[in-house]
Design a protein that fits this description.
By secondary structure, the chain is an alpha+beta fold. The protein has 20 helices and 22 strands. Bound molecules: adenosine-5'-diphosphate.
Length: about 625
Amino acid sequence: MTKKEFKSESKRLLDLMINSIYTNKDIFLRELISNASDALDKLYYRSLTDDNVKVDKESLVIQLAFDKENRTITLTDTGCGMTKEELETNLGTIAKSGSLGFKENLNKDDKINIIGQFGVGFYSAFMVSDKVTVTSKSVDSDEAYTWESEGADGYTITKAKKKNNGTEIVLHIKEDTEEADFSKYLDEYELKSLVKKYSDYISFPIKMECVHRELKDEKKHEYEEHKENETLNSMVPIWKKDKNDITDSDYENFYMDKFNDFDKPLKVINYSVEGMCTYKSLLFIPSHAPYDFYTQDYEKGLSLYTSGVMIMEKCAELLPDYFSFVKGVVDTEDLSLNISREILQESHSLKLIAKNIESKIRKELETMLKDNRETYESFFKTFGVQLKYGVYNNFGADKDKLKDLIMFYSAKEKKLITLKEYVDNMKDGQDKIYYAAGSSVAKIDLLPQVEQVKDKDYDILYLTDYVDQFAITAIQDYDGKKFANVESDNLDLDSDEEKEAIKKVNEDNSELLLAMKDEIKDVCEVKFTNKLKNHPVCLTSKGDVSIEMQKVFDAMPNNMGIKAETILEINEKHDISKKLKSLFESDKDEFVKYTKILYAEARMIAGLPIDNPTEISTLICDVISK
Ligand code: ADP
C-alpha cells in the first residue's frame, strides 16, 4: 500500500493543526458536523432532482459515538458520500476554496486568528486526533473506500466494505499532554455540550447513545441504566420559528442562555429581510450594561450563522460601535461557510447586512422613544453615553443618524428631553439652544451663568456626561438653531442699551481690568458684566474649548495641554465692583489680594482646581481679619 503525499499547502496546514497552535480545539466537532450536514443537504437535493436517487427524509441523520477505551470518536452521516476520486481531491487538498489565503510569513497570532474565526474544515480533526479514518460510499458508486492519515506525511486510500451511502469518520484521539487535555472529548457530557454550543441549529438530527438512569428502588437508591439514542440538537433555531409560536419566555430563555445574562432583555427585535440581502435576525437590547461593557475586554458583535451553522460567535462588522451593546444572531445564506476573516470583512453581502441591521436598530429605538418613553429613558440611562459617543466619533459622520435619539436633562422639565422637544418648546425670540456643563445637575443649577438664561425663561440643557459637550460640538446645530454654552462670554442676551452701558463701564475701567489680568496671567481677559445676579464673579470661555472640555482633556493620560481660553467676569452691580475700583485708586497691594481671591473663587465655582490654595487661604484671612 503506497502512501500518497498531501499537496504542499495542505501539508503546511496539517502541520499547523497537528501542532495545534490554536487553543480552541473544540471547533473540530462543529466542522465535521457541518460537513456531514452539507452531505445530507446534497443528497436530499439530489433526491428532489434525480429520479434515480430515492431518499427517506427520516434516514437523514448524523450519528455521534465515542469509545473511551479505544480513544475514538466516530461521526457517521447518511449523506451523499464520496467516491474514491472525491476522497482524493477533497481530503488530499485543502484551501481549494482559497479560504486560507495561506501565506508563509503569517505570524502566530494571524494564524490563530484565521483558524479561530472559521476553523479549516475537515483538517481541524487533526487538532485532536493522531489518526483519522474516513470510510465513505458515494450514492453514485457501489464501492466504498477508506481514507486514512496520521498527519503530514501522507494518506492512504484502500477499498472498504460499507453497506449504505454516507461517510463515517473515526478520530483516534491524541494522548493527553501537559498542555492539553484531549481525553475530555471522550465524554458524553462534553460532546453533548459541544453539539449544543456550536451545532444546535443544524437542521438534521445529531444523535448519540446516551446513558439514562432510572430510579428502580427509591429505598435502596437503586438505579437502572439503559442507553437511548438521543437527539442532541434542537434543530430549529428560534429565529426560524414562526413568531406566533414563540413566547416571551422562549425569547428570554434563549437570550439569557446564549448571552449569559441573568436578566431579561429590555427589548427583543425579531425580523427577517429579503431582497438586496437575505437574512433572519434575532436581536436583543440588554436591560443593563454587561459587567465588562466599559472595559477594553468587551467585544461587540452578533453571532453569525450561515444556513444554520455558526461561523462566528461575535462578528464585530455587523454592529457599529454606537450599537455595541446589542446582542443577537444573524442567519444568512448570502455568505459561504468557509470564508476567511479578511474576505468576510470585505464582503459586500456582509456590509449590506450590517447597514440593514444598523438602520433596523435605529428605527426600533426611535419607535421606542415615541411609544414607550419610560423604557426608552431606562435604555438611555444605561446606553445613552454610547449613542452620544457615536455622535461625535468619526468626526461626526453619524451624527444625523443619532441626533434624534440622544437626550439631555432639561432645567425646566426636570427630566430628560430630546433636542427636538427642546426646539419645539423654544420661546418667541429665542434663537439658540442653551446648555450648561458640569459634573451633576445640582452643581450646574448653581452656576452663576445659568441664572441669566433662566431669567429670560429659556430652557437649558444640563450636560453631565463627559462626552456631552463633544457630542453637541459635533452636531453644531439642530433644526437651524445653534447651540450656546451659558458659560461662554458672548451669549448676547442683553438689549442694545444694556450692551452699550456695560461697554462703557469696561472702557472707563480698562486700566483696572488690565492690571487684574496681568496679575492673574491665566485668563485672556478680565471684564465687568451685567449678566450675573447675585454672584460676584464667574469664569467664562471663548473659542472652541470650553472649561468642561478642558477638564476632560486634563483627565486624559496623554493630555496635550489643551486649555480653554478663559475670561474672568465681575458682576458690575455687586458691591465688590465698587470695592475694587476704590482699592485700585487707594491701595494697590490690597487690590492684588482681592484680585487673587476673586479669581480663585471663580475657578472654584467652575469646578477647576486652585493651584495655590495655601496662598489663597492666607490672603482670605488677611482680608477678613482686618
Ligand atoms: P469545505 O467543507 O469548506 O469544502 P472541508 O475540508 O471541510 O472543506 O471539506 C472538503 C470537502 O470534503 C467538502 O467540500 C466535501 O466535498 C467533502 N466532505 C467532507 N466531509 C464530507 C462528508 N461527511 N460527506 C461528504 N463529503 C464530505
